[in-house]
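Researcher: Watch the backbone:
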Amino acid sequence: MKVRDGQTFLSVYYERNAVEFATGDTNPHADAKAWKRETKSLGQVATPQPVAELMARWVMSAKPATVLDPAAGLGSLLHECQRLNGRAQLVGVERDEETLRKAKSAAPRGTKLILADYLLADSGQFDGIIANPPYVKAHRLEYAEATWCFFEERFDTPLDRLTNLYALFLLKIWEDLAPHGRAAVLLPAEFLNANFGEEIKERLLRSMRPAGVAIFAPTLNLFSNALTTSAIVFLEKGRPASAPMRVMKADSLEEAEAFVKQLLTEPAAGPGLRFCDLANFDPRKKWLNLLINDVCPTDQPLFPKRVGDYFDCRRGIATGANEFFCLSESELREHALSLEDVEPCVTKAVDATGLVFSPEKFAALAAANRRCYLLNPRRNGRDLESYLQIGERQGIAQRHLPSHRPVWYLPENRAVAGVWAAVFSRESVKFILNTSGARNLTCFHGLYAKPGHENLAPLLTLFLNSSWGREAFAQVNRYYGDGLNKLEPKDVEALPCPQMPRLQRAEATKLVKRLAELESLPLAERSEQVDALVARHLDVPARVGA
């Protein structure tokens, strides 16, 4: 392999038609607005100019002779690097031919553009690396098992086969960073919570030891067309083992810029910037939730127990064809089906509101002709057979979920849940006590009391709807950017909670009645009353001003 100025360059330089030299005739930031290559298969998303600028400031602070963008796109990141140091040799790797062709006129003049899969290329080392890697989930990757094994050996870490493409980029960028070099990598922050991220986080702590990590608040959505929370990892090769690994939440680009400035000048934390040290973090925990909520692992735990100590949580019923299996009263009449052919079921999150979903609320749904009945026949009959034949003609029986059930038209076996937890939410999540006897589809997760805790559902509902419950929820939910939150059953079980007392049935009945009464109050007064009840029944921290 050819060596130049102490740097090895990509072997693909010598493959025919694999190298282009950019002319820099157009503005990459302007071109990015009309860039049509932002597809799911390629995972390409243009970097906002202010973010590119602060990333380049970190990379170019080390005065690199060579700078690599391993997912170059149109070259906007390299343009920001050139603005800060016009003498550095710029190299961009891009695997998509059409994007490379556009980059020839958009990337900085003289940039070497290489057509290659960066993860499989023999890259050599670079003094500076700047990257916004493609966002491609594992199920869309085409790497064979042998290639995954190659990655594990090369990166010296086991890899979950659900690892996203951008995480693989992060590992290789570290391998390709020269001693004393600096890299800035813009990533979706989901790996800080995801199961596949455990190996990546362990590698961050063990060997990469970043100088800093900036987590952008979910409300600060950097990419208007992508529901994801973003993070920038600032790497430096050869930092002392004792050097802190600073991590902070940025509520604005200005805070992120101040963070980079402090990383470069190495002062103590300045006014308004609170840092945690990654050295105190456990790779098995959800880092994103801690950081978004300004919680460091050294802080006092919020509560001693978890919801999972008292309740099991299971996802709702998945039908595989809601339009066939979920019916309204008018549809029951149309097909001459009876209540023996169906069971009450909430099929959409908007159909359940308030603190308690009661029999009266279900009756109102049915009267409004909502699809609130789930097909679950307990008898045979000509009318039922006719309706099932409709499903067979429509191909419902051959769909994935119905075809994998013992009897294609019978739903999953789910008991009635005592508490519902909404899967998706924005400003506030729904936790609803279910006294209606209705089951639920996948719009809600269901909570089922463990033996000995059967009377706790109303008290748990109170807690989850309190200000303390909102704090606990924020420690386990999954942030998807633009204010969107998601809960998985394991997240609900991991939700911190106080020690729960053993309630008698009469006490639980009183709480159910009180919850229903609170629904008639204005929201602010209701929240105040919920907090007062929680403080009366549970050991929770006192509120300032209370």
